[in-house]
Design brief:
With 219 residues, the chain is mostly helical. It has 9 helices and no strands. Helix content is 80%, strand content 0%.
């Protein structure tokens, strides 16, 4: 949905056709999840057998994600959508071994993630753009809506009140994805630096309090 919103803005704020944007999103998604997934599933055993392990699988997976991101940028959609859909198609292969999944996960977590968070620190001055009322508003709105909705869902699903609260606070944790979306929104001018700082602080605090609160309500 967020990629759809960004694509509607087009380049330099020009609004593109909604029908064209929806068609491109659906077309790319269907192509990758049907044809692309089939091709990847058939090619993966050859890659595992003929290329170095696990470097071959790692290189191919990252290369395909970059190509998917570049293609969606080319057709007017955001790069994050292309990489995400290619990741689904690649990760759904029955030939992808669990050790390979873990290696890819560790590589992304220990190489790309630290670089991303460092870049955030360079992008915005958190001290100058810290707005306490805005931070509190964003935090309490985010926590209130997520905890209430998730807790209510858990309770209606048959859990006890304490178990439902544990579910609510567990799902309340925001992380890298929320910060990524905030960064994208900042880059295209949808939000300002003060709102970005509030979103980052909200994501960090909700992630830190999630575990202790879950443990409190489960025990």
């Amino acid at each position: 949905m967020f990629s759809f919103v960004l694509s509607l803005m087009g380049q330099q704020g020009e609004v593109t056709s909604i029908g064209f944007t929806i068609g491109m999103i659906l077309g790319f998604g269907l192509f990758m999840l049907i044809i692309g997934r089939y091709v990847i599933n058939k090619a993966l055993p050859w890659i595992q057998q003929n290329l170095s392990w696990p470097g071959g699988v790692l290189s191919i997976s990252l290369g395909l994600c970059f190509l998917g991101a570049a293609f969606t940028e080319y057709i007017g959609l955001h790069a994050i959508l292309g990489a995400f859909i290619v990741g689904i198609a690649f990760g759904d292969s029955v030939h992808l071994q669990e050790r390979e999944r873990e290696i890819i996960h560790q590589f992304v977590t220990n190489v790309f993630a630290p670089l991303f968070f460092v870049s955030i620190g360079f992008k915005v001055n958190f001290i100058e753009n810290f707005d306490l009322p805005l931070v509190l508003l964003v935090f309490f709105l985010a926590v209130g809506c997520k905890v209430f909705g998730a807790t209510l869902g858990g309770y209606l699903g048959g859990l006890t009140k304490r178990e439902s609260l544990a579910v609510g606070f567990g799902l309340n944790a925001r992380g890298a994805m929320e910060i990524i979306l905030g960064t994208l929104a900042l880059n295209v001018g949808l939000i300002d630096s003060k709102m970005f700082v509030a979103l980052v602080i909200m994501a960090l605090i909700t992630s830190m309090i999630s575990g202790p609160l879950m443990k409190r309500f489960i025990n």
